[in-house]
Amino acid sequence: MNFLSTNFRRPPRATPIKLEVIDDDEDRSEAAPEDDHPLHPKVESISLSDIIEKKPSIFFLILIPLIAVYMNLNHINTYLTSLSWETYFYGVFYLRYSRLVLNLAGTYLYEHVPVPQNPRWDSGDVTVVVPTIDPGNPKFTECLQSILENRPRGIRIVTVGDPLLVQCERVAARLRNHYPWSYIHVSSRDHPSKREQVAEAVRHVATELTVLADDHVFWPSRRFLASAIAPFESDRVGVVAPFKRVRRSTPAGEWSVASVLNLVGCCYLQRHNWELRASNALDGGVFVVSGRTAVYRTRFLRSGGLMDRYTREMFFFGMLGGRCLLPDDDNFLTRAAYRLGWDVRWQETDDAAVETTLGDEGVEKFRGQLIRWARTTFRSNPCNLWGGGGLAWQTATRMPFSYVGVYFAALCNFALLWDAAIVVTFCRSGLYNGLFGGAIWKLLGWIVFSKTVKIWPHFKRYPQDLPLIVFQILFGYVHSFIKFWALITFWDCTWLGRNLEAVDAMANAGH
């Protein structure tokens, strides 16, 4: 690995802190004790008919407004036909692009938190938790090496079953010899569940700050932790989301399926970076603090009952998710931070960059990841918009832009439908002056600008990719179909992209 040659002093051993856990689950008869989590969160297979049979009142709530619309179709039709095509065009154009203008402003206004000369916290105050089910992957070892170069207090690796535990211990033993300044602890659970693995480690953390990191991320800079924890100088900050980017694992500019998939992956996360930077600057909101790498105050993660709810989350009025929803773990923690009144900061600096891989393992895995992430949108965002526990009110009053421009907008952001509506209403209006009149080309130029402005940083970094930009634009329209499929199958909470059944079978082969 290539790391900066900056010399680092060995971090001082921080004074152990006492973390008092206050359990607020005493009134919940169904709550499991903090140390008695269900071991195997089985995913239920459930159909639409099962949902109707289980809770039909929900569908009456949906049916009532539909009946009201049907009974007033004549009035609605009369009103709509009285409007001109210009009015339709301006209305659709405003709904589509007002958010873009605000995002441009937020991107310009954003300021990162600089590293103070005398910080309250340093790398010795950080424990890194890494759940894994693939310790044999070379990415796992590289991930741990990059973390250890930042000299945290320690790393807690949590895997599944005895065979993987042995593999993790072998990797840890080699690393302990090269990085003696950090302890490396390895443990395991009986069944694959990222939430259970994280909860297992968190209950043993004794540092002020905890980093949750995936097993295939890399911290290129030895100054990553110093920059990533800088926002915690404020006592109001409970979570920090670092800047993330995808490795260009294939040659930039190469015309191949692998190169295009990798490019789409790079642009996918770059769009997220752009939107997170903008919304966080405007009102402190983020749509999610990605689980790839996130920094938390340990007392937030250890707050009463949080890990219990984290490992027992269900969705859609508590009807779906089996014994626990497997994906969407990072969305749960992001919502919990806002609900408990913590500030969430986006930290974008050269040092606070997290690298990961995406789109480099074939079409099928990438497609599965895209579907899983799109389903997360339809499961998680309604919680921010209409969820209980005061979350919806907090979101609307504390983060008004994020409420409308992030959480609500993501539910109806189908590029194919929006762009088709804009072009059709424009061509039917008096603004259209023919195919060669110039106006339509100005509109199409604006549409292309709106689709590429978020990913300019990637093409600044890899200008050889510019000829491939057409594939990124086409992907935006293809993703509309992926997103629609995710909408009509949102209750499917399978962790696509990982074969958890095979991992479970291997982990329990000798039991």
From TrEMBL:
GO CC terms, sorted: membrane
Primary localization class, coarse: membrane
InterPro entries: Glycosyltrans_GT2/GT47, Nucleotide-diphossugar_trans
Superkingdom of source: Eukaryota
Subcellular location: Membrane
Pfam short name (any one): Glyco_tranf_2_3
Protein name as catalogued: Uncharacterized protein
Organism: Colletotrichum orbiculare (strain 104-T / ATCC 96160 / CBS 514.97 / LARS 414 / MAFF 240422)
